[in-house]
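Researcher: We're teaching a course module on how sequence relates to structure. For the next exercise, students receive a sequence and then see the predicted structure as tokens, so they can try to spot secondary structure elements on their own. Here is the exercise chain.
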Amino acid sequence: MTDLPLDANGCPSGLAPPSGSDASDPAAFVRKVGKQSRLSLTVRGAKCGGCLSRIEGAVTALPGVESARLNLSNGKLDIAWSGTLEPRRISEAVSRLGYGVAPLDTSTDDDAHKKEEQSLLLAMGVAGFATANIMLLSVSVWGGHGEMGEATRQGLHALSGVIALPTLIYSGRPFFKSAWNVLKKKRTNMDVPISLALILAFSVSVAETIRGGEHAYFDAACMLLFFLLIGRFLDARVRRRAWSAARDLAALASRTVTRISADGTPQSIRSEEVKPGDRILLAPGERAVVDMVIEGGESEVDESLVTGESLPRWTGAGMKLMAGSINLSQPLTGRATAAAADSLLSEISQMLTAGEQKRSTYRQIADKAVSLYVPVVHSTALLTFLGWWLVGGSGLREAILIAVSTLIITCPCALALAAPVVQVVAAGRLFKGGAYLKSGDALERIAACDHIIFDKTGTLTLGTPRLVSTQISTELLAEAAQLARASRHPLSRALTAAAGPGPLAKDVKERPGLGLEGEVNGIACRLGSAEWTGAKATGHTGATLFFARGQERPVELRFEDDIQANAAGTLAKLRAMGMTMEIVSGDRAEAVAEVSRSLGIDQWTASASPQDKVARLEALQAEGRKVLMIGDGLNDAGALALAHASAAPGGALDVSQSASDTVYSGGLSPLPGLVKTARAAKAVMLQNFGFAAVYNVVAVPIAILGHATPLVAAIAMSGSSIIVCLNALRLTLNTEKQA
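Model: And here is the predicted structure for the students to work with:
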């Protein structure tokens, strides 16, 4: 997107639709939900709050439109309307504002984001290569000052110009096109002074080279361009990461469904076509993509994505099955209770969208800073030029040089690098410590957090049951394992792992929700629930199985989900840093209570749905708390997106990893380092912003008074950038000492 024209706010506009799509008539992509029509479009070029307001306002103004919501992170515009509105009018309304629009195509969007990153990375590489080479030539000029002949010096300047010209043309496109398009609409943005500084520095350097002057500023122009492209590239990468969560969840929900027609014939349809009341057939191994009530069949279902509960649940007639659950063993039929767009997966997708939208606050703050900074820079440079030329009695050349010096010395290079360079250094430090930082602005949010919400399964615990029984003999364990090898149930797999390899029982049959039965060494045996085996349930808080061998008394097999080995020490470090914490889990109350007691966490909530987790977050936010959410399942994705900051373990579901700010590995041990590094990074960012402000207060008067040539201004500007970078590197030293 860096090669595309921008709108009045510096946002790309006039974009062509993705290849293979029909932006002019999106009618084929309209979904019917009851009496309401819905459409999802991809909008390219919207990046700021002003873009969002204009687009949503223009679409909402159309007759019949009930809602229009744009997500700045992924460019997805969701529209719902009633009546006879033609979908073409929606795309035309967005196009008239200068934005590209096309029916939603996640694969094409992903390609566009990747191309933007690749384009910026290539431009940054070209600028960096040119800067290094021109600096070598500049060092030769400086080193030979007073001894080098005029012809040699002029030749080196000319060679520097030959390198700088194509570099500015190619690598400067993101800034030049942005500046040109906002100026055409009589507005400004941060790219305007940057572009002016680049063009004037190059132009003055060419003039000085032609007239045989001692100084040229090609190196300053290329160095400035290189540093600024670093920040632009990091911003593009963060935006691509931000929208991937909703894309992954859409891929999870975009599946076909087997609907049973009135005459009993099964037919495969898109999930979007399911209506409440439709009869659905769910085959073994298939994931439900709509909420339903079971009418026929009995089976075990894996609801780990929905509730976080690691153990399968038996389900039968009259029981509810949420979208995202997997049918494990037997066919099920049920009635859809909601359309796909109103299912649990859709609700979680809306939570993700809301969470990503909330994070655009930082971009709005940056927009406000730009609106104040740009007019001051322009006015200062213009008044300096007019003052020296008309009032100070200087010639046109001298007045231009002083104005250029002012423009260069006030160029926001240090300001632009104040946060990105800290983010890069902190990300590298965290990566070494086992945490991958996905969002640069997450450092500020993590640093502000004072409360942690943990999911239980897969976060505080390993998420894998382990046999802990000590009363069963080796012989009975081996016989029970012969039945367990016929099942994929997590407890059966844990039992098989404890017993090791061995034979399979004869004539094994699995009874959904009850257990297994078969012949072991000529004796009829059962493995399953207390009811199934004729045993009495015990008070064990963890999962249990009972093994009944013939008429013998059933033997209890106990399983536990082990707590992470480093959990207690990690939580102690977090408490020492002033963090409070609680557990909010979808698991059974007994299991959650046991983990809470083991880790000394007083506050906990069990059997929490995705909506319950979000509600708890909102309640804490209403109290003024800044919450760090840590979870690994689909049921955590909405909370991960809506939390002030979030983290997911490396084994988490892809959607949860995408929705989080950080992915960590190696148990919970990286978390204290994550919080400590984030707090240190925030302090360094504030120091950098403070230095950038002081630098301008000191340097600008020097340039205005004519005491700084463009070369001195370029060195000062570059020096301020170097100081900002060195201060960021100090972050690594500080965190290493604290580790």
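Model: If you want an answer key for the exercise: The longest helix spans residues 106-143. The CA atoms of residues 194 and 411 lie 6 Å apart.
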